[in-house]
Amino acid sequence: MLFTFSDLGIGAAITRAVARENESPQDAAVAEATVWRGWTVLAVAALAGVLLVGVVGMTVGWDTLLGIPEPHGAAANAATTGALCLFLAFLPVSSARRVLVGQGRSTLLALMGVIPPLVGLAVAAGLAVADTPAFAFALAPTVGMAAYDVACMAVASRRGAARDAWRRLGRRATRPALPTVRIGAVASSMLVLTVANAALIQGSRIVLAHRGDAAEPHRVLAGAAGCICRCGR
């Protein structure tokens, strides 16, 4: 939830370019170039992110940054490192969602939204049967989102700019040189908006984690339940 800006704002540029790909051959070429450039930038960002996450996990520890006390620190650090690395590894694939929006297939995208909870539930059930440590369940929603992104990519890459960019990636067809495109203007504005949104909405959770302790949520819930009961009377 903290990384709603993970696509670096590139998704907005991809959506706009793909939405215009049928207007002319030039627009089709620009759309392919935008998708290709977006994938390339996100792949580099994913690699850098995985390296950063690994370094933090091996040095400072994510449990320290997130305010998770002992004796849960080691398990929380391992689970957070694994979940973040998996999330970042699928970062380029996640742009397929924005391709589907540009293709005018938002309804299909919404219907495919059942994939993350279903896959996440299946993974969680498997972890429960295997009696894994509690923090390992952090991987369940991440695996669900990864499956969702792979499914979106499989659908989006069957037509238009995404199909052509995928063929270029796999070298299954000889493609002409791509035109030069600039995605920084659109991406930078979206990046600022999404970073600010994540900081405003999710940042308080990190503050509360550092100020409270493991029993704090139970005390808050107990207090809320007491207030509800009194109001009910």
UniProtKB/TrEMBL annotation:
Domain of life: Bacteria
Bilayer-crossing regions: 41-62, 74-96, 108-129, 135-156, 177-201
Alphabetical keyword list: Membrane, Transmembrane, Transmembrane helix
Keyword Transmembrane tagged: yes
UniProt name for this protein: Uncharacterized protein
The species this protein was found in: Demequina litorisediminis
